[in-house]
Description:
alpha+beta
Amino acid sequence: xxxxxxxxxxxxDPEVMGDMVSARIPKKLRVAPFAKVDDTLAGVPGxxxxxxxxxxxGDADIVAEGEAVTIEKMTTSTRKATVKKAMKGIGLTDEAVxxxxxxxxxxxxxxxxxxxxxxxxxxxxxxxxTATLTYDGSAGVISYAGVVDAVDALQEEQATEKVIFVHxxxxxxxxxDAEFTSTDKYPANVRMSCEIGSIAGCRVVPxxxxxxxxVGSGKTKCYACPIIKLEADHDNEDEVPALTIYxxxxxxxxxxxxxxxRTTEITADEFYVAVLSNEAKVVLAKFKA
Length: 289
């Protein structure tokens, strides 16, 4: 006789849920999509890695007429990074799964994806906040002129695609700037994920993760907005990206049955570490709040 009964194990399948959570995480990310994801650590023993990073060559010098500029040596440094485990768990009763409002299992997938994505995003923003190249725009709020000055700190020889992360409270200021171009004025199919427009050659991505910091002796409150240069050639393996996420293991979902209380506990984790892999491609611009 065929088994026609619906079982909790049929509705809560860790393998299926793992695929769903993995698929939903990218949709919840704001900062991490602009990082390079490196899976070379998968299957490699140990939890600490040595990451090479290009050091910033320093600010430009004032050179008098007829004098020679000092030639700088571009160097690399190394830093240690320890793989982290982002993890979250949810408990579902049998009553919730079998007769709960809506789709409790689907909602669990979404909530687990949101939790892990938020942690990865937080780490990416924290790493960008350690950039050694900075621009002090604390004298005024964010503007075209301020973004231009911040971008010029990158000393680009030719214009490349860049992204600036701003706090949502800065969006109104940007939209009122005559030089801001909203995405509705873009040609078709050129908008990036989460982008709302562009200014001074930078694609603007709002994120509440952009922190409020104090600058100067007057303790002026400013938003610390990272500007990152994107890879000019995604097929060029020699090009070191600004931000890299090393993954030790992709999302893993496991379940544990609690028969005495008829509850199934669902946990999800991801092993990763986010690092600033090219300091020359990041400038931290601080604008008055």
